[in-house]
Amino acid sequence: MLITRQNTPRWLIFLIDLLIAVFAVILAYLLRFNFAIPESELKPLPQILLYMALVRSVSFVIARSYAGIIRYTSTGDALRVFATVLAGSIAFIITNLATFYLIGHYFFIPFSVIIIDFLATSFGMITFRLIVKLAFLEFQHPDGEHVNVVIYGAGEAGITAKRTLDRDAGTKYKVVAFLDDNQSKQGKKLEGVDILSPEKLDRLLESKSIAQIILAIMHFDPEKKQTLVNKCLNYGTRVLAVPPPIKWINGELSFNQIRTLNIEELLEREPIRLDEEKIGCEIAGKTILVTGASGSIGSEIVRQITKYAPKQLVLIDQSETPLHYLELEYPEYSLGAAVEFILCDICNEPRMRRIFESFRPDMVYHAAAYKHVPMMESNPSEAVLTNVNGTRIMADLSVEFNVSKFIMISTDKAVNPTNVMGASKRIAEIYVQAMGHEKKTRFITTRFGNVLGSNGSVIPLFRNQIAKGGPLTITHPEVTRFFMTIPEACQLVLEAGSIGRGGEIFIFDMGQPVKILDLAKKMIQLSGLILGKDIQIKFTGLRPGEKLYEELLNINENTLPTHHPLIMIAKVREYSLSEVSSEISDLVAMLPSKLNLDIVRKMKQIVPEYKSQNSVFEQLDN
Predict the structure, then answer these.
(1) Which residues contact 466 (CB under 8 A, 6 or more apart)?
(2) pLDDT under 50 in the chain at which residues?
(3) Which CATH number is associated with domain 147-261?
(4) Each residue of 130-148: pLDDT tens digit?
(5) Closest CA to 567 of 237, 352, 278
(6) How far is 255 from 259, CA to CA, in rounded Å?
(7) Residue 156's pLDDT is what?
(8) Quick one: pLDDT at residue 1?
(9) Per-residue pLDDT, 426
């Protein structure tokens, strides 16, 4: 049968096309002569029929119009059929002109017959393909077996998404409606499907079993998207998204590219407006050194810096495999900037000195740090060695080699720290800020909360646990965190770096805090699973040094505004460089002993607001 899974033989399609062409010639003659063909026209008809069939056969073979898989017929296939038939009809016209001028005022085929034949053959061949396609779809998925889908967006991406679903024979999707904000489109049909106002979504979700909604709109207002997704998830409807056209394969969307909406997309905010000109002036033609360059933040900073045409990038990381992957990825966005990938530890002062001597960087973005709270709680000496002493080495070398700007990436865990990691970053902040007030190099600190999808973020952990069937592990039902996307955080780092004059600690507007439990529930829903039925959530208890809530400002701090609404300057206590240097030297001198209590006690002396929570070091606060 033509509608079975087995492809219809090409020779059979060729024969059917040829029969359609022959029938079209006969129909053309009947219509031309009102179903009463004169004897004079009837006599040469067999020769004309044979000639026209021969021309059509040759055109079919040359264009391979029979080679497509009928059940996947698309607009492209219809256009190919149309062009093939047109080419044959042009051959008939040329034949007529030849007989007229060479034989003498004689048209071999009446021109009216050629026109009618062209229309009938095109219509017949295209209709045959559509009938087979519809029959196949109905045979594969009888009524009641379809998965109902709504497409949000009746533009080019929406049409493409529908056609992608239609041609995917391995699926059984039925588009029941388009939704579009454009009032001029509402009430009309698109490829036989109604275009409705988004306000009708509630009625659709209530009246029909809508299994999925596909977002086929490239620029969606974040708040509106959240409202829409929450509404769909409440009805158990999965939310999918069409990727931007730039990611389509050879300009065509494939079914596998229509993916589940990511939690990062759901929590994103309005695009950030940057002072591109000022950032460009800071970076263009300069040598930029980035530490922790293959980490989630460092690598994104690298991607964004390349847009501003630096002369050279010096990318440093001690983690071999991520740096290797960054080197493989770099040509995709390098824009011709020279680059050096250097595998080394920032705590190796002699090696770092040679790097500064060789490349003489103009700017340093310092993203290298240990950041896992429980791991640093167990290894205070390593936290101090990298986060404090490593930062000091980088800062001192920046001054020695006349770096114009040093931008340090800090964390909200440095505010009222309750753990070793946060305290180590606060000590690094203090040193960098003190350097910024007394040295020619401008030292700038940027402080923000968790970034979605970064290494160590809860998002990859949850995603991995969902893939394994759960359970999702959460330390406490009330744990709350600030979140920001990686590109957003790095854009603000570049902006703050361009406006910093030295000694500032810039904090970013992280939006509203998010409860981790709510985040986990939303990710489960987005995955199409049901909490308590398909997957569970397990509470494991707060980890050593972990806070329930995080802050961006010390209780004694306040902020000053900048020209950018999402960037503020923290007003913090200032320290003298001589005092800070002495304290840090004493702290670093204690590292070889590996006496954790002594090391942490010294950290608490430097940062009086450091009060341990859920940690063995709480005894030092009593």
Answers:
(1) 472, 523, 524, 527, 529, 535
(2) 1-5, 169-170
(3) 3.40.50.720
(4) 777 777 666 655 555 677 8
(5) 278
(6) 9
(7) 82
(8) 40
(9) 94
Give residue 2's pLDDT.
45
Please report, as a single letter, which amino acid is at residue 297. I
Neighbour tally for 291: CB within 10 Å: 26
Taking phi over 0 as left and psi of -120 to 50 as alpha, with beta for the rest, 499 belongs to alpha
Q: Which residues are 406's β-sheet partners?
A: 364, 443
What lies within 8 Å, CB to CB, of 511 at 6+ separation is: 269, 482, 483, 484
CATH class given for the domain over 281-456+484-514+555-621: alpha beta
Instruction: Judge whether 239 and 229 are in contact, CB under 8 Å.
Output: yes
Q: Residue 336 — left, alpha, or beta (φ > 0 → left; ψ -120 to 50 → alpha)?
A: left
Judging by beta carbons within 10 Å of its beta carbon (0-12, 13-18, 19+), is residue 200 exposed, middle or buried?
Answer: middle
User: Tell me, what DSSP letter sits at residue 249?
Assistant: B
Q: Where are the alpha helices (DSSP H) in 141-186?
A: 156-167
Q: How far apart are the C-alpha atoms of 118 and 85, rounded to whole Å?
A: 7
Nearest Cα to Cα of residue 176 among 209, 224, 218, 215? 209
593: Cα separation from own chain's centroid: 47
Task: Tell whether the torsion through CA atoms of 429, 460, 364 and 481 is positive or negative.
Answer: negative
Tokens found for residue 58:
């040759």
Task: Check if 413 is active-site.
Answer: yes
Contacts of 332 (CB under 8 A, 6+ apart): none
Listed in order, the ranges of the chain carrying CATH 3.40.50.720 are 147-261, 281-456+484-514+555-621
pLDDT in tens, 95-122: 888 877 777 666 777 888 888 888 888 8
Closest CA to 454 of 422, 428, 490: 490
Integer Cα distance of 42 and 428 in angstroms? 99
DSSP 8-class letter at 607: S
Residue-level pLDDT at 255: 67
What is the torsional sign of CA 393, 397, 400, 405? Answer: negative
- The pLDDT tens digits of the residues spanning 31-59 come to 888 877 777 777 778 888 888 888 888 88
Copy the structure tokens of residue 40.
Answer: 């004079």
Nearest to 164 by CA among 75, 77, 255: 255
| CB-based contact 416:555 (threshold 8 Å) | yes
372, 450 Cβ separation under 8 angstroms = no
Catalytic option among 162, 286, 413, 602: 413
- pLDDT at position 218: 76
If one counts every other C-beta atom within 10 angstroms of the C-beta of residue 515, the result is 14
What are 575-615's pLDDT values in tens digits?
888 889 999 999 999 999 889 999 999 999 999 999 998 88
Give phi and psi for 37, each to the nearest 5: -75, 125
Q: How far is CA 451 from the centre of its chain?
A: 15
